[in-house]
Amino acid sequence: MQNDTDLNALARQLTQVGSLGLLKLVISSFHIVLIIICIPLFIRERKQPMIKHRSWTINILGCVTTTTYITPLCCFLPTYLRHYFLLQLPVLQTKLLDYDTMVDPEKYKIHSRALIQTKFLSSELGAWTFFLINSIPCFIILLYFLSITNLDKMALGLPNPTDASTTYIGLAQLVVSGVFLLSYGPRSPKDNFQIMTQFYIVTALAIGVVLTSLIGIVSGNSNVIKICHIFSAVLVFLTVSVDLIIPLQFLLTNKRYKLSPIRLSTGALKKRSVKKPGHSMRVQVNLSQENALSNGISSGEGATSEGSRSVKSQSSCAGKVANFSVPKILADPILYDAFCVYLAREFSMESLLFIEAVRWYKKQITASPTRDNIIALSEKIHNEFIAPNSVNEVNLPKKDVMRLDRELQSILEGESSLASTLAVYDQAAAHIEQMLTLNHLRKFVASSIFREATEAK
Fold first, then answer.
1. Between 25 and 72, where is the model more confident?
2. Which residues form the RGS domain (predicted)?
3. pLDDT of residue 374
4. Prediction pTM value
């Protein structure tokens, strides 16, 4: 008789939990539709900053595996770590513009080594490495508790070691992720793709999911468990929706989000490069500019898409662009520094680094046209900018890369004249300069960085 009473009580509890089936079905259907829409778009637009800088593959994994609970919670910390190192990447790249670093092999080697490490840690592969390191111990712990859990209790939704361990692991993951996010988030730019805003919202919602589950486990009351299930389902729905809808909104509307422009101090802009005896290499932006750079990475203008601009603003911008060119900007100390900040914000510093490296190469070869110097400098530029997957690889057409390889081979074999040696990178530098003009010049001239730089002159 007692057994029948216990079974009836368990059946009633199971029925109460099962009554949430319709809610979960609606939420799951909405998520499936969102994921089906987003995955092809994210794959196609994976190089767009608002997709790329969110570790899109890790985000998709977290959304697809929402029902597994542990997997999506292990995605938070790798995403934040990758974003943190991504913000550090252009700051390190800018340090390579320093004259002393350029001419000092030891300094250059140290900065290059740090840049290589940061580039890996800020890549999708780095995010997956973080994820594996972060998730494997959690799954091992989960498997242990699963082995000692009464599966009947688990099926009935009753408190059990597996659910408890899952909740505590999830809470630990979110606490660590939240602490790390708060350690660098407030100092990070409120960028034009609202990445930090999304991170804050998603983390807060996920913590709400875990705390709701924890309340249900601790209480043991069937009514409380039911309410916690409802709240948990709704919070999971909101978490996944925010994670997918914000980047989806950008893709569908093709608009940037308005935020406060970067403020650059006039004094910082005026403190510009100096020339060393026998050299005209630019000095790295000073400490004030470096702070402005780190505060300005990814911060954006309230620029709308091309189709939404008025004819008046188009003609105004076209007039400004016509008055400025990349060589003119690079020759102007104040505009050069402003362009550095802008390219760092756009994660395109390697283009400027390549142009400066080619200038430095010519000056060094002209000053000392020895075979050893030519070979050392040629290999240095090739290994850093031209070789596949190099630390500052620039986007050159395949035919240009093949031509460079042939010409560099001729240089190494001593078959090229001094004039040919000096001009070996000219075509590649011209291509990169053209890409800067096509991809960045118009946006730079329309930015508040350019406006403040011209006002400071």
1. 72
2. 325-454
3. 84
4. 0.68
